[in-house]
């Protein structure tokens, strides 16, 4: 049980440190803490207290450890089903609002308080009154499991993370429900010692997921920090490079102009042609470094209130003459008013559409869809191009990485720029691609960050009028 205690509390600490503001992380951390408390109680009862009793008998210390054991055991038995149901409510985005969840947390704690007040106190053989506790604890477990399994994600980039969470959390919790709550009422005590196997599997899945697909956004957090630091380095580096090259190019222009004057005065046409070549090269160098610098300089967003569907459609309109044999499929509901920087978001979307059009090489289907979630708006750009394997998709957000060979105008900065724009708006960007199928890019706008408001449109009003007539 020592392993279970250390492993579960380590998981709880990682969850809290990763994102302490996330209700999902906090409540899943509480689940791990409660599970670890039970393992701590077992470690105290089976290892530490007997060792002290045999080798260093001190009544006061043993009493203190016994009280710690009792507290840990009760925390595990009463806290685990409670924390698990609260986690499931936070994890399932359509259960209730945040205020409703807080009210539910107060209501759900009532059975625990009643058990503490009106059932026999803790003892080592019967820590709780199983025949009473099972009637509310098991429904808590089953309701929580149902909420977790019923969660649906509209963007495929996060679906694998959902099933990793299910695999890491559900088996250990459901096994603990059977071993620690149901079997004791049938006379099978101390069956909780077998929980170690399922807890071990759950912890292993947690750490595997942490370093592969991600777990509750934690790998995403690591990737974000890496990409942010990379972009900052690129920003400062290109700024220095831009300044240095601009100065040297200025010198080149100054001296080539003097040489040009001399060549004209002395009637040397070959020298004039050579000077023009050097001048054109200097202009090209300046243009190239300026374009890189504009893409990598630190973004300062200027948010204003805009109609999101209008912004999207205006951006798409500029590409319609270039689509040729590419069929455009739009699903952009009207009425969403958001506060964001239209120039930056429009340019980010422009980059995604440009990438999609280039990938399909003039033939295919381009899908642009805006979906509403409970807490976010998701803008999806999907193409039917050749797609990318996992290795290329993982590098797609790295500055200067590009799959477009032979195009000197492409710097591999379109996706990093779009990622940076979304980060500046408090949102995120996700990529999912499969060779031979195509690529999906998702822009996620948290409603709270962009102050998204659904306005009543003419189609909504007409629909309401029809309902009144039929009613």
Automatic annotation (TrEMBL):
<dbReference type="GO" id="GO:0005524">
    <property type="term" value="F:ATP binding"/>
</dbReference>
<feature type="transmembrane region" description="Helical">
    <location>
        <begin position="192"/>
        <end position="216"/>
    </location>
</feature>
<keyword id="KW-0067">ATP-binding</keyword>
<dbReference type="InterPro" id="IPR036890">
    <property type="entry name" value="HATPase_C_sf"/>
</dbReference>
<keyword id="KW-0812">Transmembrane</keyword>
<keyword id="KW-0597">Phosphoprotein</keyword>
<keyword id="KW-0808">Transferase</keyword>
<feature type="domain" description="Histidine kinase">
    <location>
        <begin position="240"/>
        <end position="449"/>
    </location>
</feature>
<protein>
    <recommendedName>
        <fullName>histidine kinase</fullName>
        <ecNumber>2.7.13.3</ecNumber>
    </recommendedName>
</protein>
<keyword id="KW-1133">Transmembrane helix</keyword>
<dbReference type="InterPro" id="IPR003594">
    <property type="entry name" value="HATPase_dom"/>
</dbReference>
<feature type="transmembrane region" description="Helical">
    <location>
        <begin position="28"/>
        <end position="49"/>
    </location>
</feature>
<feature type="transmembrane region" description="Helical">
    <location>
        <begin position="103"/>
        <end position="122"/>
    </location>
</feature>
<dbReference type="InterPro" id="IPR005467">
    <property type="entry name" value="His_kinase_dom"/>
</dbReference>
<keyword id="KW-0472">Membrane</keyword>
<feature type="transmembrane region" description="Helical">
    <location>
        <begin position="162"/>
        <end position="186"/>
    </location>
</feature>
<keyword id="KW-0418">Kinase</keyword>
<dbReference type="Pfam" id="PF02518">
    <property type="entry name" value="HATPase_c"/>
</dbReference>
<keyword id="KW-0902">Two-component regulatory system</keyword>
<feature type="transmembrane region" description="Helical">
    <location>
        <begin position="128"/>
        <end position="150"/>
    </location>
</feature>
<keyword id="KW-0547">Nucleotide-binding</keyword>
<dbReference type="InterPro" id="IPR004358">
    <property type="entry name" value="Sig_transdc_His_kin-like_C"/>
</dbReference>
């Amino acid at each position: 049980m020592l392993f279970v205690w250390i492993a579960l509390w380590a998981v709880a600490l990682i969850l809290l440190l990763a994102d302490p503001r996330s209700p999902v992380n906090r409540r899943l951390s509480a689940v791990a803490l409660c599970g670890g408390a039970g393992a701590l109680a077992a470690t105290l009862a089976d290892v530490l207290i007997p060792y002290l009793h045999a080798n260093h008998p001190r009544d006061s210390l043993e009493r203190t450890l016994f009280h710690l054991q009792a507290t840990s055991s009760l925390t595990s038995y009463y806290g685990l089903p409670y924390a698990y149901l609260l986690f499931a409510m936070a994890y399932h985005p359509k259960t209730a609002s945040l205020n409703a969840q807080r009210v539910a947390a107060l209501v759900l704690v009532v059975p625990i308080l009643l058990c503490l007040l009106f059932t026999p106190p803790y003892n080592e053989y019967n820590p709780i009154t199983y025949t009473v506790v099972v009637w509310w604890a098991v429904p808590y477990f089953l309701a929580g499991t149902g909420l977790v399994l019923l969660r649906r994600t509209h963007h495929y980039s996060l679906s694998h993370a959902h099933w990793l969470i299910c695999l890491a959390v559900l088996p250990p919790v459901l096994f603990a429900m059977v071993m620690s709550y149901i079997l004791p009422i049938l006379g099978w005590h101390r069956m909780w010692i077998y929980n170690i196997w399922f807890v071990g599997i759950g912890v292993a899945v947690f750490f595997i997921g942490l370093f592969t697909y991600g777990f509750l956004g934690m790998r995403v957090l690591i990737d974000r920090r890496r990409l942010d630091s990379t972009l900052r380095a690129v920003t400062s580096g290109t700024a220095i490079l831009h300044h240095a090259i601009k100065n040297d190019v200025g010198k080149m222009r100054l001296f080539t102009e003097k040489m040009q004057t001399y060549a004209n005065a002395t009637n040397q046409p070959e020298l004039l042609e050579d000077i023009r070549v050097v001048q054109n090269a200097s202009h090209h160098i300046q243009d190239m470094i300026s374009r890189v610098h504009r893409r990598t300089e630190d973004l300062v967003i200027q948010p204003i209130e805009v109609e999101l569907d209008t912004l999207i459609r205006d951006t798409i309109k500029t590409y319609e003459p270039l689509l040729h044999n590419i069929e455009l499929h739009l699903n952009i509901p009207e009425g969403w008013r958001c506060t964001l920087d239209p120039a930056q978001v429009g340019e980010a979307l422009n980059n995604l559409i440009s990438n999609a059009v280039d990938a399909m090489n003039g033939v295919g289907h381009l899908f642009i869809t805006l979906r509403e979630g409970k807490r976010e708006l998701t803008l999806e750009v999907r193409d039917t191009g050749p797609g990318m394997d996992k290795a290329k998709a993982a590098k797609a957000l790295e500055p200067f990485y590009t799959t477009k060979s032979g195009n000197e105008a492409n710097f591999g900065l379109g996706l990093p720029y779009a990622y940076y724009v979304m980060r500046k708006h408090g949102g995120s960007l996700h990529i999912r691609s499969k060779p031979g199928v195509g690529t999906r890019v998702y822009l996620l706008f948290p409603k709270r960050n962009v102050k998204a408001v659904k306005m009543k449109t003419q189609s909504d009003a007409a629909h309401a009028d029809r309902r009144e007539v039929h009613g």
